[in-house]
Every structure is written in structure tokens, then in C-alpha cells.
Amino acid sequence: MAIEIGSNIMARRNNAVLDFLGSAGLSYRKPAIIAWWSAAFPGFGHMLLDMHIKGNVLFLFEIIINFNSKLNLAMVYTFMGDFKRSALTLNTQWTLIYIPFYFYCIWDSYITTAKLNRINALTKDKPVTMKVLDLRTYETCFIDKRLPWLASVWSFLLPGLGQVYTRRLFTALSLLSWSVTIYVNSHQLQYIQLIVNHEATMAEAIKVLNPEWLLFMPSLIFGAAYDAYAKTVESNRLFEKELLSYLKFEWSIAKSDLIIKEKRGSDL
Amino acid sequence: MSSLICLFKPSLSIELLLSEFKKNQIDQNNVACFILDAPLSQLTNEISSSSNPNEEMSMADLGFVFATIFGVVGASIGFKMELGPIIWGIASSIGGFILGFLIDLIFTKKFKKKPETYILISIHCHKGQENIVKKIIAAHQALGLTVIES
């Protein structure tokens, strides 16, 4: 498909791509919002930018460092007002590793978003030419219109499902495996089960909960729900852009015999 | 000869419609698509990098942020409260989401509906083909249709 306008720039910077792992496209993103998700869960910001390898490495490191420093446990004690116990809980060595790691993630995702926005400003008015279906024997991916709220709801139920729905295979696989890890280790489902079946009182059931793992959950669930929502909106927009580019070049009035102005004069 | 004009939202059914036309001997030369961009989005194109086209996303931005913060704090405090960390965590998350949503609503006011793009298709065909063309258009979620006799 040869497109005359700006073909040189197109060759240097493509603005959308699709393969069997999913689709990616450039679009304007607020740096502060991406930085926020890096702060909530290092790695999430990069996943939102479709930087899946970087994002997953950071995600893994976040869990290892956070778990060993007992940061979440210390947070629980802090919010409970027990500052002494909080200080005693923290592992100093791991906490000192955590600090530069944490702020680097936030800074890096912020600066990357700002730079990608500038590239987006260069490419956003170019027509979108991309593969719309990648059919393989082991996986099939196509671009389509999907419902953002539905993706969000699936990720609320189990982080990762909304990503399967919007076909972000990398994010889906990593979020699903982390969800299982965090759900099982936090014992929150066991806690709910004990209370619902009246096998324990609320005060007793608390003992099965693991606060260190439990505190990963809000960031994981809301991060996943946001990712599912925002990325479905983005891929819907990409679908529209691609369709409009196609119609503009293949089915425009210039390609047909129809002439709006002169037809009437000659026919009458 | 007669001309038909119909209006669509951008979706896959447009491509299905166009391929259906080809199957029914309506030549591509007699079909033209016009893209009707919303007037607002044409305006904002001029201000390139600073404008934010992602208005749909802004609607939920702050809600998700506040829900996470409130969820973490609520679950932590819940450990020494009567109803336990899960209920407090969920309740404060919902509270946080609503709060963030309201702040967005009041201060950023980005809730105006995103301008939509429509596609206008005009088809020129023989009188005899008019009925089949109408049927095809009706089967593909057209928003509107008009026939111009000439």
C-alpha cells in the first residue's frame, strides 16, 4: 500500500502496529497520569506505554524488593498509628535499595511519556496504515471495537482478564500470574470464606490475612482496571483511524466516477 | 439512474457493506465515501502537541488514582477496625473513586461528549438495483438513508 503523502516520514516513524501479541499505537498521554501508575506499582506506567519487557522487569523487581523490605507491612502499621512497630518492621538494607529504584521508575516513565508525546505530535496527522489481522497457527489477533467499561469490569473481577479481552497478551499473562500470586499469598479469599461460612468471627479471621501481600491488591486491581479501560479506548481510536485512512485512500470521491457539481448539468 | 446517500458510524460493517456492493455488481467507481470529521476536532488539530484528544480517558483518571490511595490506607486502618481490612478497603476504594470522579467533574469539566466522526457514502446505481442497495444498507446499521431520483 503506497501512500504518497509523507511516505518518507512514515518509513522512519510508524504510528501503529499489530502482531499476534496485540496492537500498539502512539497517542497523547498525560505524563503525570503515567507517572502516577509507576508510583502506585512500578512497572505499570511502562506497561501503559506498551513497554512490556521493561514494565515486567520493573514489576518483578518491585515485588521482590517490596516483599523483602516489608514496606507494605510497615505501611499498615503506620496507617494504624503504630510508628514504633512500623520502624522495627522495615528491613533497612532492602529499603535503601527500594528508594532509588522507586524514584527512577517514576521519573523514567514521566520523561518517556513526554518524549513519546512529542513523537506523537509528529506522526498523529499521518494516515494510519497497519496490519489489521494477524492470523497464525498459534494465535490470532485483530483490531476491533471493544467496550472500555467491560474490559475494566473484567479486570476488577480478576486483574488480567480485561487485558485478555482487549488483546494485550503480554500484560494479560503477567497480570494474571501476579494476581494469582498476590491473591493466594494474601489469603483474602480464605478470609472471606471463613466469614461467609461463619467458621470464624471477623476478629479471628483477620489472623489468616497477610498484610504484606494484601497491600499489593488495591494498586494491582485499580491499575489493571485503569489499564484495561484506557487501552481499550486507545485501540478503539486506532481502529477508527485505520478505517478512515483506508476509506480516504481507497473509496474517496477522487477514485470514483462521481462528480457532484457537474453531473447535474450534463445529465439534465 | 438514482443516487443514494447514507450515513454510518465508523465500524467494520462499512467494509462489509462495501464488499457486499461489489458482490452485487455495483462498481467501485459508483461509490464514494466522505469522512465527516467533527468540526471541533478539526479545530483542535491546529494546536498540535499541547491539546489533549483523550477526553474519554480523563473522565476516569482521578477516580482510579484516588481509589488506589484510599484502598491502601483504608485496608491498613481496617486491620484494627471492627469490620476488618477487606470491607474497609473496598468501602474506602469506592469512596475514593467517587471523590476523584467528583473532583474531575467539578474542576476539570472534561465531561463534554467527545465529538464523533461519521461516514457518508454515496452510491450511484441503476433503477433496478435500487432495492437491493437499500436492503444492503439497511442490513449494515446505517444511521440514515436518502434516495435522490434523477
How would you portray this structure in words?
- The complex is a heterodimer of chains A (268) and B (150).
- Chain A has 268 residues and is mainly alpha-helical.
- Chain A folds into two domains: 93 residues, no CATH class; 125 residues, no CATH class.
- In chain A, 67% of the residues lie in helices and 5% in strands.
- In chain A, the strands form two sheets. Chain A has a two-stranded antiparallel ribbon. A two-stranded antiparallel ribbon of chain A has the order 3-4.
- In chain A, α2 runs antiparallel to α7 and α8 runs antiparallel to α14.
- Chain A is elongated and about 80 Å long.
- The two termini of chain A are 39 Å apart.
- Chain B has two domains: 68 residues, Alpha-Beta Plaits (2-Layer Sandwich), CATH 3.30.70.120; 51 residues, no CATH class.
- The longest helix of chain B has 25 residues.
- Chain B contains five helices and four strands; from the N terminus they run βαβαααβαβ.
- Chain B has 150 residues and is α+β, with helices and mostly antiparallel strands.
- Chain B is elongated.
- Chain B has a four-stranded antiparallel sheet, with helices on one face.
- Helix content of chain B is 51%, strand content 18%.
- The termini of chain B are close together.
- Chain B: Keywords: Membrane, Transmembrane, Transmembrane helix.
Tag the structure with descriptive keywords:
heterodimer, A: 268 residues, mainly alpha, 2 domains, two-stranded antiparallel ribbon, two-stranded antiparallel sheet, 15 helices, B: 150 residues, alpha+beta, Alpha-Beta Plaits, four-stranded antiparallel beta sheet, 5 helices, 4 strands, elongated, transmembrane (chain B), membrane (chain B)
